[in-house]
Amino acid sequence: MEHGHGHGRAMTAEEVRAMFEAPAWDERYGGAELVWSGNPNPQLVAEVDELTPGTALDVGAGEGADAVWLARRGWTVTAVDFSKVALERVAEHAAEQGVEVATEQADVRTWAPPEQTYALVNSQFMHQPPEVFTGLVARLAAAVAPGGHLVVVGHHPKDLESPSIGRPPVPEMLFTAEEVAAQLDPAEWEIVAADARPRQIIGVDGEPVTGHDAVLHARRR
Ligand SMILES: C[S@@+](CC[C@H](N)C(=O)[O-])C[C@H]1O[C@@H](n2cnc3c(N)ncnc32)[C@H](O)[C@@H]1O
After folding, report:
1. Domain hosting residue 180, numbered range
2. Is 126 touching ligand 1 by the criterion CB < 6 Å?
3. At how many degrees (to 10) do helices 65-72 and 84-96 cross?
């Protein structure tokens, strides 16, 4: 189960900014044996379980639980992250599970994947400032092949209403599924899901608490 981010005091703007840069992620992934559970994100499983495997791009792949889960189900996966340590973890976990996952180190603020290429583009908990996020969603959507799927999941802004959930104090970096859906041309995209889904997590007090995931799943026509 996911744990909230507890800091015990208000973070300075500089600390918040540093949290979103590659060295902070390298340190985070390099320190603990596993930062996350190693299980795939539940919203990925819910949205993708029934799909026929093809090529997949996992953007902001972290330690690779989603990428490895996809590869085990027969997807041909490329995991993208700007943290070198994260990508080393992806490769280790893939090898442990006897599957191959290609890795690509890239900063998604500027990187553009090839257009209309992937049967699935998955991005889970990739939080960026709005001016970056809008361009990122456009590039991720552009990378989806005709008939392919776009899955974008994040912490829902309503999580900030419950301090015990312990989300970082960056309201501008949280998004709703509807905001992502609004970027997609209805002539080109069918919205499969645009939800705020409840999920039990362990909050900063160590107690279970209900958070919400913003879940956007769209299919290119
Ligand atoms: C909250 S983690 C989510 C990891 C994984 N998707 C999961 O759900 O467990 C966010 C990931 O995005 C990566 N990331 C953050 N900003 C990035 C950027 N500008 N370019 C590439 N990767 C980035 C971080 O290194 C981290 O692995």
Report:
1. 13-220
2. yes
3. 30
